[in-house]
Design a protein that fits this description.
The complex is a heterodimer of chains A (about 550) and B (about 280). Chain A is mainly α and about 550 residues long. Chain A has 20 helices and no strands. Chain A has helices at about 10-25, 30-60, 65-100, 105-110, 115-145, 150-180, 190-210, 210-215, 225-230, 240-250, 260-295, 315-330, 330-355, 365-390, 395, 400-405, 410-440, 445-470, 490-520, 530-560. In chain A, helix 18 packs antiparallel against helix 19. Chain B has about 280 residues and is α/β, with parallel strands linked by helices. Helix content of chain B is about 40%, strand content about 20%. Chain B is built from 11 helices and 10 strands. Chain B has helices spanning about 10-15, 70-75, 100-105, 120-130, 135-150, 165-175, 195-210, 220-230, 245-255, 260-265, 270-285, and strands spanning about 30-40, 45-55, 60-65, 85-90, 95, 105-110, 185, 215-220, 230-235, 240-245. In chain B, strands 6-7-8-3-9-10 form a 6-stranded mixed β-sheet, sandwiched between helices. In chain B, strands 2-1-4-5 form a 4-stranded antiparallel β-sheet. In chain B, strand 1 (about 30-40) and strand 2 (about 45-55) form a beta hairpin. Chain B is globular, with a radius of gyration of 19 Å. In chain B, about 45% of the residues are buried. The chains are: A mainly alpha (about 550), B alpha/beta (about 280). The interface of A and B includes residues 5, 102, 111, 184 and 477 of A.
Chain lengths: ~550, ~280
């Protein structure tokens, strides 16, 4: 028999590309979706572009060190991208290489190992890096505009970003490949917890390493020479972010230096070769191990105490314990938990390094304002968590809906159960978060009290919005839970959540500002009650509406599902 | 050919579609050999030193109670799982050392398949034939012919998400045949098929082995296994406990006119169950 040609990378990517195309073709709401996505995208792009543009203009105004500051900023931004990409690639590679349902077909086919590696690597890059790639566009465009660069800069920017995305994808997927080989797949959870630990440590190390707060406080340096020395030192000459930054800055400042650019490409190529060699050697065993986890669970499952809850109706009791069990046994959910942990660590860490207590004494007023803005930011963290964990709730029910619908269980109790199973853990995260950050900020007891009570309301509303909108925009088909929050419905949820937060923060800021002003001026008790009643009452009403309306709409939608 | 009452035109069509199936010049007499394969999950052994040889031109049935290690074995034969010990040899090629040569000879029909929901049936078939390096007009014609026999041709351009369970199974069978494999590895082939399609499939397997192809089939539908298989192996706890033609198996269990169900219940240690079944049958007739 003659040797048959193996399917190419492009052929292997075919079904994914075609599926996306077909999905879009059959989607009746695509115009509205793309319109909305375009609008939101444009808004964020303009915002990021504006911020970077202003900073670069300011840097350029500072004689002598302007270019150095701009290069440093680019280096830091690219290093942050690199860290995000590494983490995201490790997690994405686990699903694209090992857990993806179509792998069985591809592994059973006589497909060349390098081709399969290439195809899955491209898929990993696309899934893990699209957001970073989109963020890089306004960032690099701002550099191009401020430095009045012509088209070679933009061409170079694209040619720089490509190997820059390949490198962390190769490293991340090789890391996953080795972990899957070392750990039995049944221990995937431990494995992911380990990745999470590394990731959180990595993020903290990154910030400590960069000490970005130092750059905004030049007065801490002994003299200008010292400051310039820090600016000139690369974050690390061994990391690709430095090569990319050097390559781009050299083009912007007049003399293109091909060395860092060549270094980036050759390293990416060398890493690809090493990656495909590792794949050839380790993938078959790794894939076999990943299958094992799906086939056998050892030992008796721990019985949950929740099943003995006497106060609840049997259906509610079973629903609650089912929700909790399914959550903790689903490894894809676990990888989401890691992202959550990283999100919280980054948030608390940033609050801690806020330069509020250094240099001159920061005013009492500013601290309180920051504490109050903290409510908005913590609310945003809660929204992000709700998007990951509560929003997919109804979609995950998907193919099991027949059972729930054919049972005598009311849709309303299903919702109420899901609502509380989502709300209580969120409260357990949100309340310590707001209290800890406020304590770090040394906020007054008044602010602490107001923000804590508001946080309870915000959490209640966020869960309802996530659950309700998740039922209004269900995605029953996806094999990957991580895709649900990034779907169109997920976007609608995030937009509604951010709008809700903005309204609540503004409504509360008004009376709180009055109260603080009055206290600061030494008045006691004489604060105007009208804004307090209107503001707090308004926030309460908006919150109530955000709890009731989405839940009702969600219940109606699930009842109408065929 | 064994007669299942299939109409002549359909059989003719099947024969035409199977043109070109068969062993190459360098073919070994054995299509498949499992040499002492062991599959362990931690401390648990799912397959325990299994030895089997399947010659070319045979439909080989592979039976066993739930959890006996059938699907694990099938997935090792298809090259999806690596055995912990032992080797799987397909047409003279060891799967571990020559995976490309070995896999290119197999058409695999899993029991719980994944199909790309957002591809049409035609797009899926084209993709699969490309995976086996057969992206050519002849394989497209073959696919159309099989779809036509299965009454699926008019659905070719519809997305797979709109297919019923049986239609998916028929698409999957078609996809395993378009690259003209030498060995079909199939887990529960009849699930979801209507009587007509089930009969076509039996015929199809028969034409396939007449042309020198080999079928390695696992199923719980004992009537089907008894009707189509030339030889049968029964496994329990990861090892072969009985093997041979129906007559060989009858001799092994010492009962002249036993059907496969009785033999199965006896050799798998459910003799009391066999008596119950026999008693029920007597009272019925």
């Amino acid at each position: 028999m003659s040797t048959r040609p193996s399917a190419s990378v492009l052929w292997l990517l075919g079904p994914k590309v075609r599926s996306k195309f077909n999905r879009n073709k059959t989607d009746e709401r695509r115009r509205f979706k793309w319109g909305l996505l375009g609008f939101v995208g444009l808004f964020f792009w303009t915002f990021i572009f504006g911020v970077i543009f202003r900073m670069l203009l300011y840097f350029r105004g500072t004689q002598g060190i302007g270019d150095l500051l701009a290069a440093k900023l680019l280096g830091i931004a690219l290093l942050t991208f690199l860290m995000i990409l590494l983490l995201s690639n490790v997690i994405t590679a686990l699903s694209t290489f090992f857990l993806s349902d179509d792998m069985e077909l591809l592994v059973a086919a006589p497909v060349d190992s390098v081709q399969l590696y290439g195809a899955r690597l491209v898929e990993t890059i696309v899934d893990s890096s699209w957001m970073v790639a989109l963020l890089a566009i306004p960032l690099l465009a701002a550099y191009g505009v401020v430095y009045a660069a012509s088209w070679p800069f933009y061409a170079l920017a694209v040619a720089t970003i490509v190997p820059y995305l390949v490198l962390p994808a190769v490293v991340g997927s090789a890391f996953t490949l080795m972990l899957v080989n070392v750990f039995p797949a049944r221990r995937t959870r431990d494995l992911l917890a380990l990745i999470g630990l590394f990731a959180a440590a990595g993020v903290v190390a990154l910030f400590r390493f960069l000490r970005p707060e130092r750059l905004v406080r030049p007065e801490e340096f002994r003299d200008l020479v010292d400051f310039m020395a820090v600016l000139r030192t690369p974050t690390s000459p061994w990391l690709p972010n430095e090569w990319a930054a050097q390559s781009l800055m050299s083009q912007l400042t007049g003399g293109f230096d091909p060395f860092p650019f060549a270094l980036l490409w050759t390293t990416a190529a060398a890493f690809f070769v090493i990656g495909s060699w590792l794949h050839l050697r380790l993938f078959p065993t790794g894939f076999t191990r990943a299958q094992e986890g799906a086939e056998l669970r050892k030992g008796r499952p721990r019985s949950t105490k929740l099943e003995q809850l006497k106060w609840a109706a049997p259906a509610t009791r079973q629903l609650v314990s089912k929700e909790i069990r399914v959550f903790f046994r689903d490894t894809t959910q676990w990888s989401q938990l890691i992202l959550l942990a990283v999100l919280v660590v980054v948030y608390v860490y940033n609050i801690k390094v806020l330069p509020l207590y250094t240099g001159e004494q920061v005013s009492f007023f500013l601290i309180n304002v920051v504490s109050f803005l903290n409510l908005g930011l913590a609310g945003f963290v809660v929204a992000a968590i709700a998007a990951r964990f509560v929003f997919p709730g109804m979609s995950l029910e998907g193919r099991m809906m027949w059972l729930l619908r054919s049972s005598p269980l009311d849709v309303r109790s299903l919702f109420v159960t899901k609502y509380w199973v989502g709300t209580i853990p969120l409260l357990l995260i949100a309340l310590p978060l707001i209290v800890v950050t406020n304590v770090i900020l040394e906020a007054t007891p008044l602010i602490l009290g107001i923000t804590t009570v508001s946080m309870v309301g915000v959490t209640l509303a966020m869960t309802a919005l996530a659950l309700g909108l998740g039922a209004l925009y269900p995605n029953f088909e996806t094999e990957n839970v991580a895709e649900i929050p990034t779907s169109f419905g997920g976007l609608v949820f995030m937009m509604s959540a951010v709008s809700y937060l903005a309204v609540v923060v503004m409504l509360l800021a008004w009376p709180v500002n009055g109260l603080l002003q009055a206290r600061f001026a030494g008045q006691t008790g004489g604060a105007d009650l009208v804004p307090l009643v209107l503001g707090a009452g308004g926030a309460l009403l908006v919150t109530l509406a955000c709890v009731i309306v989405p839940l009702k709409a969600g219940i109606r939608r699930v009842r109408s599902l065929q | 050919m064994r007669d299942y009452g299939m109409s002549e035109p359909v059989q003719e069509q099947l024969r035409r579609l199977m043109d070109g199936v068969g062993p190459g010049e360098d073919a070994t007499p054995e299509m498949l050999s499992l040499n002492g394969i062991v599959k362990r999950y931690g401390e648990f052994s799912a397959v325990n030193g299994l030895d089997l040889t399947v010659p070319r031109g045979e439909i080989f049935g592979f039976l066993g109670p739930n959890g006996a290690g059938k699907t694990t074995t099938i997935r090792m034969v298809a090259g999806v799982l690596e055995p912990t010990e032992g080797s799987v040899v397909i047409g003279g090629y060891d799967l571990a050392t020559h995976p490309m040569e070995a896999k290119s000879r197999i058409g695999y029909i899993p029991d719980r398949p994944y199909l790309y929901e957002k591809l049409s049936g035609g797009e899926f078939l084209r993709f699969v034939s490309g995976l086996w390096g057969k992206d050519e007009p002849a394989s497209e014609d073959r696919a159309d012919g099989l779809l036509e026999i299965f009454h699926l041709l008019e659905w070719k351009h519809e997305l797979i998400e709109s297919y019923s369970h049986g239609m998916r199974q028929k698409l999957l069978i078609t996809s395993a045949l378009i690259h003209q494999p030498e060995l079909i590895v199939v887990d529960e082939p009849m699930v979801g098929l209507d009587p007509r399609s089930a009969r076509i499939l039996k015929d199809l397997f028969r034409v396939f082995v007449e042309r020198g192809g080999t079928v390695f089939l696992s199923s719980h539908t004992l009537e089907v296994v008894e009707a189509v298989c030339d030889r049968i192996a029964i496994i329990r706890e990861g090892g072969v406990i009985a093997q041979g033609t129906m007559d060989d198996l009858r001799t092994q269990v010492d009962s002249g006119g036993a059907d496969l169900e009785e033999i199965f219940l006896k050799v798998t240690g459910n003799e009391d169950m066999a008596e119950v079944v026999a008693g029920l049958q007597e009272s019925r007739f």
